[in-house]
Amino acid sequence: MSERTLRGRAVIAGVGETPYYKHGKAPDDEFKLALIAVLEACRDAGIDPREVDGFASYGGDRSEATRLAAALGIRELRFSNMHWGGGGGGVCAAVGNAAAAVHSGMADCVIAFRSLAQGQFRRYGRGAAAETVSGEDAFLAPYGLMSPAQRFAMKITRFMAEHGIRHEALRAIALASYHHAQNNPRAVMRGRPLDAATYDASRWIVEPFHRLYDCCMENDGAAAVLVVPAERAHDLAQKPAYLLGAAQGGHYRSAAPVHNAPLYASSHFTTVAHNLYAMAKLGPADLDVVQAYENFTGGVLMSLVEHGLVRPEEANDFLVPENLLAPTGRMPLNTSGGNLAECYMHGLEMVIEGVRQLRGTACNQVPGASTVLVIGGPMVTPVSSLILGTEAAL
Amino acid sequence: MSTTPSRALPGGLPAPASEPLTAPYWVGTRAGRLVIQRCRGCGGWQWGPEWVCHRCHSFDLAWEEVPPCGRIYSWERPHHPVHPALNGHTPYIIVLVELPQAGNVRMVGNLLGDPRQEIGIAAEVEAVFEPHDEADPPYTLVQWRVVG
Fold first, then answer.
1. How confident is the model at residue B2 (pLDDT cuts 50, 70, 90)?
2. What pLDDT does residue A128 have?
3. Domains along chain A with CATH numbers
4. Which residues of B touch A259 (CB under 8 A)?
5. Which residues lie below 8 Å from residue A197, measured CB to CB, with a gap of 6+?
6. If pLDDT is split at 50, 70 and 90, which confidence band does A119 have?
7. What are the phi and psi torsion angles at A171 (to 5°)?
8. Sorting pLDDT into bands at 50, 70 and 90, what band is B6?
9. A258 vs B54: CB contact, 8 Å cut-off?
10. What pLDDT does residue B18 have?
11. Does the beta-carbon distance from A144 to B80 stay under 8 Å?
């Protein structure tokens, strides 16, 4: 029996994005944004959109696979997949699910995408306007605990306290994203540089570790990648980005209700990172660039720790801007500006940035990058992460 | 344990729905009792409520009264109002309280007192039952205050 793996079995052939907009500023309907991103990914790959036979998404995307298939005249839909979980926890899983579909033969040409026009729907940073709440929320919302920032804050408080990590470590993460965005024409925060003093003076969203700049933006737009079997890698218009590893899930009872996960002060990647590296046959020292989903900077910190990139006891010393900046930093992080400063496209924009780094076409290019780690939304469950590489990294 | 005339947060926030799985808890708080799920099969404590024991898979889960005291496991102080009812009423404090006498399960509540007070992880706290008698149906939340 052959080895059960996705390593080297699928490639990202094309990437597509709409322009990225501030929350509520997209001129187009959310579904139209999805269509634009899908068509752009196909154009980039040089593949006829009618060849697409699958769609994978996450976060409860409203642009349904069947509607996309009908709208685009897809000849035959063979794979439609919605990954459980809110927000961007499933971003890398969606790519992994697309790869699994093309490797298994269930489909040949699968789009992984996210479309999001929050201005046309409900904002994430606001609680629902319900009179009563049920399930887990019945034990949270009456206490004014409703938003993602609040849901995760106590994990971060506990982690920072356990390890004596200072807020400055989180500041470095925010500064790196904003620094990279200044050089990125797509970035919503281009032209809005951030310095340490501005960060320190920004208002509290949630004490003790969520200042304004520790929190992601809310944006409108859409992004898509096109996944095909590795057999096609040499017939593509673009340099292929190979999937080296993909993992998703969560550790033991990470979703235990009302904040009862046994390992609480966690981004939930402890087992996922292990599985990711095992599939990729790589370790943290082998990674040239890191894209780590910032819903909140504290989640980035914990996800870096759980992927073995930073030890908690060295976080105060290592997480300084110069170590995180392309092209010369020891661990270039969020090189397009990420969710904080490029666009909060639930991390799909970070997958695309990973592909650009491997193609050598990134705005803040890390010279010779051959491996990229993409970490999906931390602290939710399930979470997911992904390692992409050039052919040389196989 | 006591009741307090003042509430941690203003009115208008969502109320807990009455559901079969969680009803015994809310019946308990109305009577000033803190009850937590405990498995009749293996004796394990469990929170939040679930239909099955995650340790032994028994569906025979009891609701056992526990002393209304615990210690702060973590905390946060929201400043940004996430609901219209909270406009002008921030900051406030949310605590995650560990119950040592119920297998260290954790509960979420508000910490009463000065919303700008210093908060210490591991600080001892006691429950304060906060009735919402005007609600239909009425319900009682469990809040917390620092001991001593």
1. very low
2. 65
3. 10-120+215-393 (3.40.47.10)
4. 96, 106, 108
5. none
6. confident
7. -60, -40
8. confident
9. no
10. 86
11. no
Of A120-129, A212-221, A298-307, minimum mean pLDDT range? A120-129
**CB within 8 A of A199, min separation 6: which ones?**
A171, A174, A175, A211, A213
pLDDT at position B4 is: 46
Instruction: Please indicate if any CB of chain A lies within 8 Å of the CB of B13.
Output: yes
Most A CBs within 10 Å, among B82, B87, B105, B116, to test the A interface: B82
CB contact under 8 A, B110 and A144: yes
Beta bridge partners of A384: A248
SS3 of residue A234 by DSSP? helix
Chain B residues whose beta carbon lies within 8 Å of the beta carbon of residue A142:
9, 13-16, 141
List active site positions of A: 293, 344
Identity of the residue in B16, B74, B92 whose CB atom sits nearest the CB atom of A132? B16
Q: Is B102 helix (H, G, I), strand (E, B) or coil?
A: helix
Spatial CA neighbour of B143 closest among B103, B101, B115: B115
Whether pLDDT at A239 is above 80:
yes
pTM of the complete model:
0.97
Mean pLDDT of chain A: 96
B32 pLDDT band (50/70/90 cuts)? Answer: very high
* Predicted ipTM beyond 0.90: yes
| Measured distance CA(A27)–CA(A116) in Å, rounded | 13
Number of CB atoms found within 10 A of residue B123's CB:
18
Nearest residue on chain B to A259, alpha-carbon basis = B106
Q: Following DSSP, what letter does each residue of A7-58 receive, concatenated?
A: TTTEEEEEEEEPPPEETT--SS-HHHHHHHHHHHHHHHHT--GGG--EEEEE
Q: Which residues of A touch B82 (CB under 8 A)?
A: 125-127, 144, 146-147, 150
Least confident of A45-59, A76-90, A113-127, A329-343: A113-127
Residue in B80, B91, B107 closest to A258 by CB: B107
Nearest to B17 among A138, A145, A150 (CB): A138
Q: Say if B76 is an interface residue toward chain A (CB within 8 Å).
A: yes
Question: Which residues on chain A are in Cβ contact (under 8 Å) with B50?
Answer: 257
CA distance A76 to A60: 23
Q: Look-up: residue for tokens 């504290």?
A: A298
What pLDDT score was predicted for residue A130?
A: 78
* Closest CA–CA distance from residue B70 to any residue of chain A (Å): 15
- The two tokens of residue A156 are 């971060």
* Residue closest to A319 by CA, chosen among A165, A192, A146, A201: A165
Strands B45-46 and B69-78: unpaired
Res A1: pLDDT = 61
Strands (E), chain B: 2-3, 15-16, 35-39, 45-46, 61-65, 69-78, 94-99, 105-110, 124-132, 139-146
> Which residues contact residue A239 at a Cβ distance below 8 angstroms, ignoring those fewer than 6 apart?
A358, A359, A360, A390
